[in-house]
Design a protein that fits this description.
The protein contains eight helices and seven strands, in the order βαβαβαβαβαβαααβ. The protein has 263 residues and is of the alpha/beta class. The chain has a single domain, classed as Rossmann fold (3-Layer(aba) Sandwich). The chain has a seven-stranded parallel β-sheet, with helices on both faces. β4, α4 and β5 form a beta-alpha-beta unit.
Length: 263
């Protein structure tokens, strides 16, 4: 079955470069027929995102700081001026001080804890609150990105594991709140990815190799696979799926121990 998103339009938040998971999702949605708008943060990222957006026939880019209410308000006002209604939002935003993603979790600072939870989790709530009025008429989909470090201790993930656990819980609560208006809220949980964000995690290369060798499919997730999952969730095919954490990790999450040859 070919899934179409023709006639649907939405906002992609979090593209950093062509290796970003958000970029893989954007490409897949564009190929399925969707119209896209993009956010970025700061001039440097804007210069990276602009040619990528143009390659997908998008000329709408807006600078957004998700820790600033006024910035978020302005972005959604601009989006509403372009499109009174939208069908989806992809929230691919997370941050933590990379210096605190080494060592012990117990040494997490209060400042970085608050900042990590604010950007990585609370921003989804702020985005959903502003997207909600633009989806009330026809329903829609809000997608975010998580990782299995939310519920299983992962080396060097530290406070991001707690932030992603909060994000997954927020996904469920938002799904319940917005469901009566036909708005689905889901999270995609890929395995380790060779992205800009993934590169700041200590031991990233070892983690990537370990999952590649031990996942039941003996492969890590690809941008294409994640993009396809996002298309399903945001299309009419996903109309009855909400509050879910969809794993796209080659099956790694089912394991209790490495494969016998790697013990």
């Amino acid at each position: 079955m070919t899934i179409s998103m023709k006639g649907k339009r939405g906002l992609i938040m979090g593209v950093a470069n062509e290796r970003s998971i958000a970029w893989g999702i954007a490409k897949a949605m564009h190929e399925a027929g969707a119209e896209l708008a993009f956010t970025y943060q700061g001039e440097a990222f804007g210069k990276r995102v602009e040619p990528l957006a143009a390659s997908l026939d998008s000329d709408f880019l807006v600078d957004v700081d998700v820790t600033d209410d006024a910035s978020l308000d302005a972005a959604f006002e601009q989006l509403a001026a372009k499109w009174p209604t939208i069908d989806f939002v992809v929230h691919a935003i997370a941050y933590s001080d990379k210096n605190e993603l080494t060592g012990r979790f117990v040494d997490t600072s209060r400042e970085n804890f608050k900042n990590s939870l604010d950007i990585s989790c609370y921003s989804l709530i702020e985005v959903a609150r502003r997207a909600h009025p633009m989806m009330q008429e026809n329903g829609g989909t809000i997608l975010t990105l998580t990782y299995s470090g939310s519920n299983r201790v992962t080396p060097f993930y530290n406070v991001m594991g707690v932030a992603k656990a909060a994000l997954e819980s927020a996904t469920r609560y938002l799904a319940n709140d917005l469901g009566p208006d036909g708005i689905r809220v889901n999270a995609i949980s890929p395995g380790p990815m060779k992205t800009l964000a993934g590169a700041v995690i200590g031991g990233a290369r070892k983690t990537y190799k370990h999952t590649d060798q031990n996942a039941p499919l003996r492969a890590n997730a690809t941008l294409e696979a994640i993009g396809g999952t996002a298309v399903y969730l945001a299309s009419d095919a996903g109309v009855c799926t909400s509050g879910e954490i969809i794993r796209v990790d080659g099956g790694y999450h089912v394991l209790g121990m490495p494969q016998p040859e790697n013990l």
